[in-house]
TrEMBL record:
This is Sigma-54-dependent Fis family transcriptional regulator. Keywords: ATP-binding, Nucleotide-binding, Transcription, Transcription regulation. Residues 8-214 form the Sigma-54 factor interaction domain. It comes from the Bacteria. GO terms for biological process: regulation of DNA-templated transcription. The keyword rRNA-binding does not apply. The keyword Ribonucleoprotein does not apply. SUPFAM superfamilies: Homeodomain-like, P-loop containing nucleoside triphosphate hydrolases. Pfam families: AAA_lid_14 (PF25601), HTH_8 (PF02954), Sigma54_activ_2 (PF14532). GO terms for molecular function: ATP binding; sequence-specific DNA binding. InterPro entries: AAA_lid_NorR (IPR058031), Homeodomain-like_sf (IPR009057), HTH_Fis (IPR002197), P-loop_NTPase (IPR027417), Sigma_54_int (IPR002078), Sigma_54_int_dom_CS (IPR025944).
Length: 295
């Protein structure tokens, strides 16, 4: 049996937790509800759960639910063979009648009714299913039937530890696929990549790597070679001026002392907390407290 981690790249704690949950649920028959923003890897995880399950040798069928009505769903459900896995992508796009059909199907499979072969259901959504359920747009009974083991794929901005790993792996794989020499990244370009919020998540990072492999094969990617949205995001996030120096200048030493006093007071005298507020290590803060002779 394959491991769930085989194709899924990531080593951040939040990602590892997801993979561990997927590994545990893979060996069972229960439905899995995979939520998360677009491009976070929901479909890939569903495929990996199937691949790590005792059903790995049977079919894995994907049905995109957008535009699928009750009759369309019925056809898809009937086409699923015993022992296979059916992945319903964007399940919240099913209308209420189709939802009723799915619920009835899942209940019938679970009860082992004649004409209902043993098919495992995995679903994904990028919507807030609970909110839809409360708004009357998603059946409550179906919600709870699907909600046995919910797994939430974290957005890439919450697993920044994985960005460089994904960048390296995607670059190497895509360079091989396109028969190009992999580009390398300057330190500043790499920092921009780490700071960017990646609203399209792993898919956006993958597309970016592909673009760079094609356009910058064998070269060193500099800031100027990066897409405008990545440069713009970083300039608003970190490169922008934090504080504008007045024309008459300032007393930097006094300002530093003042900031340290404020941080100590804000943290109720806790030196570690104060250091965190100032983005310093505790040792550096203690050194500066001494330098400013702060009590
Ligand atoms: N952890 C990962 N390791 C390697 N590749 C990944 C990972 N997560 C996602 N990908 C890749 O990113 C792309 C988007 O993933 P996927 O289609 O699974 O996302 P999704 O959440 O289902 O997106 P959508 O909601 O838009 O359908 C795919 O090419 C997938 O192979």
């Amino acid at each position: 049996m394959n491991s769930v981690t085989e194709k899924m790249i990531g080593h951040s704690p939040v990602f590892t937790r997801v993979v561990n949950a997927a590994r545990m649920v893979a060996v069972t028959d229960v439905p899995v509800l995979i939520s998360g923003e677009p491009g976070t890897g929901k479909a890939l995880l569903a495929r990996e759960i199937h691949g790590a399950s005792p059903r790995a040798l049977a079919a894995f069928r994907v049905v995109g639910c957008s535009g699928v009505d009750e009759a369309g769903l019925e056809i898809e459900l009937q086409a699923s063979a015993a022992g296979s896995t059916l992945f319903l992508d964007e399940v919240a796009d099913l209308g209420l009648e189709a939802q009723a059909k799915l619920l009835h199907y899942m209940e019938s499979v679970e009860a082992g009714r004649a004409g209902y072969p043993n098919v495992r259901i995995l679903v994904s959504t990028c919507r807030d299913l609970l909110a839809l359920q409360k708004a009357g747009r998603f059946r409550e009974d179906l919600y709870y039937r699907l909600h046995v083991v919910p797994i939430t794929m974290p957005p890439l901005r919450d697993r920044t530890d994985d960005i460089v790993l994904l960048l390296k792996q995607f670059t190497a794989d895509l360079a091989r696929r396109h028969g190009r020499k992999a580009p390398r990244y300057s330190v500043t370009a790499r920092n921009l990549i780490k700071q960017y919020r990646w609203p399209g998540n792993v898919r956006e990072l993958h597309n970016f790597c592909e673009r760079m492999v094609i356009l910058m094969a064998g070269a060193i990617v500099q800031t100027a070679d990066m897409p405008i949205e990545i440069r713009r995001d970083a300039s608003t996030a970190s490169d922008s001026t934090l504080f504008t120096l007045p024309e008459g200048g300032i007393d930097l030493f006094a300002l530093e002392g003042d900031m340290i006093r404020q941080a100590i007071s804000m943290s109720g005298g806790n030196r570690s907390k104060a250091a965190r507020l100032l983005g310093l290590t505790r040792d550096t803060l203690l050194y500066r407290i001494q330098k400013h002779a702060i009590e």
